[in-house]
Amino acid sequence: MKQLGRLLTAMVTPFNKEGAVDYEQAKKLALALLDSGSDGVVLAATTGESPTLVREEEARLFTEVKSAVDKRGTIIAYTGSNSTAEAVAATKTAEKIGVDACLLVVPYYNKPTQEGLYQHFKTVADSTSLPCILYNVPSRTVTSLSADTTIRLSHIDNIIGVKEASANLGQISRIISEARKDFLVWSGNDSDTFPILALGGYGTISVASHLVGKQIKEMIDSAIAGKMNEAASIHHRLLPLIDALFIVSNPIPVKYALNHIGFYVGKPRLPLTEPDEKTAAIIKETLKKHKIDLPV
Question: Distance (Å, rounded) from C-alpha 287 to C-alpha 274?
């Protein structure tokens, strides 16, 4: 299986001034992210505003970015849904496009049982030869994927890892200890990346890496090399920026930050809006205090 990478950026979806997906700018952003430390990009997920993208836009986004990235980095397609049938169809489409893996979120709104979650993910994984990454983000889905269910799912061959955004370090520790030996755990919260690495996690699917990818890469490399003091120092240095990027709902702050530093990605789609003046001022002041790795 192709190595997907320890640092993956959950990429924003650029929109033009009319609010349509700007595919050319998406290709430029993906390449810029690879140039600033990322091993690959995750497309059309939470940070990419999946709730307001239609499947046709997502499929074209996968196609366009793949054509630009080619073999330079990995493309992970968000194909999750609270409808199992829709997730299967989207995953099959992404596989035909030729992405490297898919990201499957815990079904939201309909609140399945743990057995329902197991059967959902198993059904999607059985429909594809793509590597599948589970995505546990209970702050958005309400239902949380338990450690027991994640460990059970880890024994399905092409379910290769989980993006853990539960902030439950006890649960994450159990998964790292008890899941299939080669099962990978990526941090799903930038503030949790260093603690998860310290527990034996693999890497991160990051929002902050839009801006400080090289620094996050250095933190990961330091932790993997056992240089935990160096990794911790980077973690502490980046925390104020991470806090600013989540001061209101993601991706509102990171889109504002990218526009502010000169990499235009447009406004979020409704019902998300741009930050108010007070929030924008906090983001701008925080950016002044950090080195930005993204080439603009």
Answer: 17
